[in-house]
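To close the chapter, one final illustration. This time we ask the reader to focus less on the individual chains and more on the assembly as a whole: which components sit near each other, and how the overall shape emerges from the parts.
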Amino acid sequence: MIAAAAAANATIHVPAIRYLAIMPVIILLGGAVLLLAAQSLVRRPLRLRFATVSTVVISLGAFALAWWQWTDVMDHGPYTTIAHAVVSDGFSVLVTVLVTSAMVLFALVAEGYLAREGIEGSELHVLALVSASGAILMAQANDLVIVFLGLEILSIALYVLTAYNHKRSESGEAGLKYFVLGGFSSAVFVYGIALTYGATGTTNLTQIASFLSRNVLVHDGVLLAGMSLLLVGFAFKVAAVPFHMWTPDVYQGAPSPVTGFMAAVAKAGGFAAFLRVFVSSFGVLRADWRPIVYVLAIVTLLVGAGLAVVQRDIKRMLAYSSINHAGFVLLGLQAASAAGVSAALYYLFAYAFMVIGSFAVVAVIGRSGDMEHDIASYRGLARSQPLFAFAFALLLLAQAGIPFTTGFLTKFQVVVASVDGHSVPLAVVAMGSAALAAFFYLRVTVLMYGPERAAEEVPATATAGGALFAPASELRTRLNAALLLEDVPAAPRVAAAATGRVPVPPLAAVAVGICVLVTVVFGVFPAPLVDFAHKATLLFLP
Amino acid sequence: MVVTFPYLTVLVLVPAGGALAVALMGRVRREVHELVGIGVSLVTLGFAIALTVALHAGDPGYQFVSHHVWAASIGVSWYVGVDGISIFLVLLAAVLFPLALAGARARTDARSFVGWMLLLEAACIGSFVSLDLVLFFLFFELTLVPAYFLISGWGFERRAYAAVKFFVYTFFGSAFLLVGIVVIAFVHQNQTGVLTFALPVLEHTHLSSATGILLFLAFTAAFAVKAPLFPLHTWSPDAYAEAPAGGSIILAAVLAKLGTYGIIRFDLNLFPQASRTLAPLLLTMAVVGVLYGALVACAQSDLKRLVAYSSLAQVGFIALGTFALSTEGLVGGVLLMVNHGLVTAGFFLLIGWIYDRRKSWQVAELGGLQTPAPLLAAAFTVVMLASIGLPGLNGFVSEFLVLAGTFLTHRWWAVAATVGVIGAALYLLWAYQQAFHGRPRPAVAATRDLSWAERVVIAPLIVLIVLLGVYPKPVIDRITPAVDRLVAHVEQVTHVHQPVVATAPGARGSRP
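The assembled structure is written out below.
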């Protein structure tokens, strides 16, 4: 619209820009371009260490600027810039911090992975930097068009990242699948923007909110249709059931470090825009969308936890677990309040560290070829690599919500927000699903801390009820054994490869260490991070 | 009251710090880890004893309170304190952990074992002293992690199954507890404008009867699983039987008390009306647990499972005394928690030693153990008789108080539960007969008797069992004021008063 207005005046009106607001995006994108240029100017492929170090430096630069933004927003209040299309508020700064931290961790994990797989080139880093800038833009967008722009920058880079490992056919397959379904969801999303524009006459998020608060639409069909399509588009991006179908395949197929990055950054970007558009702009219509999100959250929680239980592939299991986590974040959205938004933000922040750390372990245990993802590969890990196994167990248990980790505080806060929003049954379902989820995190832990070889057949000992209830208890024992893999024989391939220590690249170990530290330290001393999320408010709430 | 020395914080931090220290210790001989573990738990015991001595016996309120903000923006505080009810549970935990560490040593990897045990001790004591609901929940949940690793790391054949079952059952129960905690805090916030999770403040929340009942059920779900109360007990025989001896001791003697303690501390304080309304339901669960536990225990040929089911029956008695909602019943319930802890710990210690010698818990394979191991048999006899409720040993005092207290307010439940007492005599004596009497087979005849170290470990338990049986007055004198206050709180809210004769021994007429 701005372009149209400018054309009418026949002068090009350059909107005022506060560069601080978009500086992290510029740094990430600019860094990506520089890295690409450096890559094309030298004769041989860039040294991997060079790519890693420059990516870390670029991301840390953006990270540092995010803190500058934070003091600026805290001192002078939030503001919009570039003709109100981009916003700088606590909310966007927190997401920037999250994304840049995730970027650093990703670079650390990717180095060992690329070296092991023998994949050349710094394009992975370039694409990840671009993708990260898209996620930040989504959080900063104050206009549906910018949201879409960010979404596409984030997604298109991710499609390529997913297909990056050309030595694995699954990788390409996953990339294609992600691309087709992602493109489809983008189309739905754009249509949602169009209908919303048709109903309200603007795509600016602030103006949509003020339009809706000043006017009551007699015929609100177009508006509701637009809102629903936006909801579907976002639900695709954050992998809420029933729009989650792509998640397990893509998570499984993508190179493991990319999966962790995707789970942290794509979810954060998607949810950031989801929260801003719905809580801020459509806040007036919350009576319309809260019930839908309520149902969406319940289905997401239960399907995510329920299907995770039956997975044998760790990456698919973590994919379903990420769906379950998305359900928890939806609790914060469903609350449609300041408390809900900050709980959701805190959740995304803490989850990013847990999930990147988890996938860093998965990437290492995947061994050369990135194929060893059967959970039987984790059998006896605690014997051969106690520290590594302990870190993984801790990250998994934190995801289950164990006290004195950030994992507990995430769940606690969304439950608080949900109860505050009078959605007590939803909170109960969520915590119930957490118990179900604990089951599959423990499954991996059991294997890690179990014997290195599958236990030999042991004669059934006396079970509960003794001889009285023998048939029933025998059936139960078998069922439990099946679920717990107590006697699952390892697949032949696994049995051949999964013996002995797995070499752990030092930088990946550093990344896992950082993730564990953040998870535990902020779990025991929660105040800094919780306050950070509480202060990271949206520009406006209706 | 103002206390200069933060006893309770230290009580939690000493074992937690010990766990960290053990984890960070380099590769040293296993004995060093074990000695450090025992040393740390003995220091904890020293503090617990000092605390008990310093406690004002007549003061019904919370003592040694310390209150610090932990996370201001979510309203959670480090708020700890003890009263006459929790002090003895703290003491119980402090007594049993060193004994378990000394008497039931890990077969492998002593460092991790000791580390998890100390962390578990910190979590248990933390739960008993927490006065902030969220803090309690944190510790309550934290107990799961070390307990899980203890079972799955050092347990017997089906340990993976038992550990996961234990974890998921308890976790599922806690899901309701967490939501319940948040809901009551918000109900309170709506009434007063203050968001807090402090128990003494939330006690004064006004709840409609429907809300009260729902919240009561949410809280009780978690506690009944943990206790365990029939029919939510099915994880316990597996967990108790598959856990290593040290784990069984702590699981049955200390962790299970978290459930019954939670009921007394939180259910009765927060939902007096609902507790009274639903008392018949809980009493029925308790009585069925007593009878079912006794019945199934009779059918067990495995000593560990037998004790597991007898534990179910004993926990039934505790719940019976609790929901009798009379002073005598509650005092009996609290006392029984302590006594049951001592007795079960004794059982699992002795059974662990029997296993060390005979590699079996099957009574049929033990036959005639008394001849080669008279001291072991004698210790087992004392523990068993205490469990049966022989006058002069600790079990009798508490069971008598429970039954007497229940009889006054809920007559027929008490009558039915009495049958369980006879059941206990039946299955324990029968098992004892099979395991210890008779002519030993040659393999059994070579069994060693208790070593000096084992005698040192079991002696304090025997002494406490006898002491609490002969002279329980100091304990009852400290429990009664706190229980009196609790019963008065329940009566004030529900406007139903217990018969005058039910006011407990020693405290008669002291209440307005």
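Residues 365 and 502 of chain A are 7 Å apart (CA to CA). The mean pLDDT of chain A is 86. With these observations in hand, you are ready for the problems at the end of the chapter.
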